[in-house]
C-alpha cells in the first residue's frame, strides 16, 4: 500500500470502527493510528478490510508478527 492508499484505508476503518485503537481502545486522532494486520502480511494476511484494524503505535509495535493480541492490553485491562 502506498501512503495515499493507507490514508484512505484508515479513514474507511475509522468510519467502521471509530478513531480508536482496536486493542487497547484508546482514542487517538487518525494520524496517530497505524494500520494493523490481524493476520500479519508475513503469514499470508491480506490487505482487505476484514484483516485490517486501526491500532496505536504501541500495540502495533508490541504485536510485531504475532497472530495474537498484544500482551500490553492484558496489563491495561487487569
Ligand atoms: Zn493500543
Radius of gyration from the alpha-carbon trace, in angstroms = 12 Å
Strand content: 5-15%
What is the terminal separation in angstroms? 36 Å
CATH classification, class level: Mainly Alpha
Instruction: Provide the spatial order of strands within the biggest beta sheet.
Output: 1-2
What does this structure look like?
- With 78 residues, the protein is an alpha+beta fold.
- The protein has one domain (3-77): DNA Binding (I), subunit A.
- Helix content is 36%, strand content 13%.
- The protein contains 3 helices and 2 strands; from the N terminus they run H-E-E-H-H.
- The protein has helices at 3-17, 57-63, 72-77; strands at 33-37, 52-56.
- Strands 1-2 form a two-stranded antiparallel sheet.
- The termini are far apart.
- The model has no long low-confidence stretch (mean pLDDT 92).
- Bound molecules: zinc ion.
- Zinc ion (ZN) binds at residues 21, 23-24, 26, 55-56, 58-59.
- Pfam families: HNH.
- It comes from Merismopedia glauca CCAP 1448/3.
- Residues 8-61 form the HNH nuclease domain.
Amino acid at each position: 500500500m502506498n501512503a495515499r492508499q493507507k490514508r484512505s484505508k484508515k479513514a474507511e476503518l475509522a468510519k467502521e470502527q471509530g478513531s480508536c485503537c482496536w486493542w487497547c481502545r484508546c482514542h487517538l486522532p487518525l494520524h496517530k493510528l497505524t494500520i494493523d494486520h490481524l493476520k500479519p502480511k508475513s503469514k499470508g494476511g491480506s490487505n482487505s478490510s476484514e484483516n485490517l484494524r486501526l491500532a496505536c503505535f504501541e500495540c502495533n509495535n508490541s504485536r510485531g508478527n504475532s497472530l495474537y493480541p498484544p500482551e500490553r492490553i492484558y496489563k491495561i485491562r487487569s
